[in-house]
Amino acid sequence: MAAGILIIAAAVCGAGYYVSLRIWPTTSCKRCGGSGRNAGSTARRFGRCKRCDGSGGKPRLGTRILTRRGK
To answer: Is-contact 51 71, C-beta < 8 A?
Structure first.
């Protein structure tokens, strides 16, 4: 009985995570804070963030696994 409830709870949590991946497939880049720009110390060093390539976002882990996209 308890194992069945645990399996159902895991399935509900998994489905909820899948739905959240479909609604919000990306997360903000941790290096640039979602701005897409480097926080250089001089004007010459400002430019596109190398980690997110200037987009400001990175695909979430689940998105990369389920859709086979992203780096």
So the answer is: no
